[in-house]
Design a protein that fits this description.
about 110 residues, Lipocalin
């Protein structure tokens, strides 16, 4: 697993949280942890994980917060950190909620 951390204001929440994203690129596993629980949960596995080598990953989480499903698309920048975009399903007005993210690598894959 390789870990990344940053401050994120997820669509549908009223505050920013520190997010830790753990990725097993080749095993296609992702886990999201948040410093401030949403809907009573602070960790979520990535569902339907798709990775492109160790450079790019796309996955969804369910229940962050409970009324939204989020799609995450992350890719390495020129360094080992990752940039990305979080997209929530459309709100009741049909508007897509998005959040750009930048996460710094905090641990290297073993």
């Amino acid at each position: 697993m390789e870990s990344f951390q940053g401050e994120v204001h997820l669509p549908g929440t009223n505050h920013s949280s520190t997010v830790v994203l753990e990725i097993d690129w080749l095993g296609k596993q992702v886990n999201v942890s948040m410093s401030e629980p949403e809907g009573g949960f602070s960790e979520w596995p990535g569902l339907m994980v798709q990775t492109i080598g160790v450079e790019e990953a796309v996955f969804r989480t369910r229940g962050i917060p409970p009324r939204f499903t989020h799609w995450w698309h992350v890719a390495r920048s020129g360094s080992d950190d990752i940039w990305g975009l979080i997209v929530a399903t459309p709100d009741i007005h049909g508007d897509w909620q998005t959040c750009p993210i930048f996460l710094k690598r905090i641990t290297k894959e073993a």
